[in-house]
Amino acid sequence: MSIRKILTEPDKILRQVSKPVEGVGNEEQNLMRDMLDTMYAAKGIGLAAIQVGIPKRIIVIDLNKDEKKNPMYFVNPIIKQKNSVNSIYEEGCLSVPNQFAEIERPNKCEVEYLDFDGKKQLLKAEGLLATCIQHEMDHLEGILFIDYLSKLKKSMILKKLSKNKPDRIVV
Ligand code: GNR
Ligand code: NI
Q1: Which ligand lies nearest the alpha carbon of 39?
Q2: SS3 for the chain, per residue?
Q3: Is the Cβ–Cβ distance between 1 and 38 less than 8 Å?
Q4: Ion ligand 2 nearby residues (CB, 5 A)
């Protein structure tokens, strides 16, 4: 198990469309373990494989804030249904560090996927979990939450990101 490097905007790899995996084998399970390690280390609640540079349709999520871990694994996820009622959450993204914006998405969704053991599952999600699943599934299509913002808001965030590059922080 190891912590991998999280790619950040404007890395072009983040814009790739991820490919379905053939099944869940050792390679996929090892990747999911690394993704969880990486996500916990970065204090995120979700991570898509493309964020560590792997264009596979694999997502990990853990909404638990305290010590108790509750890892969730989604391989080849498909949204079966989305609620027509939306809700707004303040979203952040490990690939858009330290930037946050309110994003409106369907407040419930039904997702079909393979779990860590390759078993087919159907999950009804709502609230933060529904938001997070949709945020991660956007990553599989090369979409970031900033793409939903106005041109002006998006360009402001991109400008701040370029200023926040570690090599430009003066201590
Ligand atoms: O850590 C994260 N928090 C978050 C908050 C609101 C909506 C979505 C997220 S996902 C994000 C981690 C991440 O970048 N996943 O791709
Ligand atoms: Ni993200």
Answers
A1: 1
A2: CCCCCCCCCCCHHHHCCCECCCCCCHHHHHHHHHHHHHHHHCCCCEEEHHHHCCCECEEEECCCCCCCCCCEEEEEEEEEEECCCEEEEEEEECCEEEEEEEEEEECEEEEEEECCCCCEEEEEEEHHHHHHHHHHHHHHCCCCHHHHCCHHHHHHHHHHHHHCCHHHCCC
A3: no
A4: 93
Homologous superfamily of domain range 12-163: Peptide deformylase (3.90.45.10)
Maximum Cα–Cα distance across the chain: 50
Q: pLDDT tens across 88-116, in order? A: 999 999 999 999 999 999 999 999 999 99
Q: Which ligand is nearest to the CA of 92?
A: 1
Residue numbers annotated as active site? 136
d(CA 70, ligand 2 centre) in Å: 19
The ranges assigned to domains in the chain are: 12-163
Q: CA-CA distance, 35 to 68, in Å (whole number)?
A: 18
Rg (CA), the chain: 16
Atom number of ligand 1 nearest to Cα 132: 8
Q: Is the overall model pTM greater than 0.85, yes or no?
A: yes
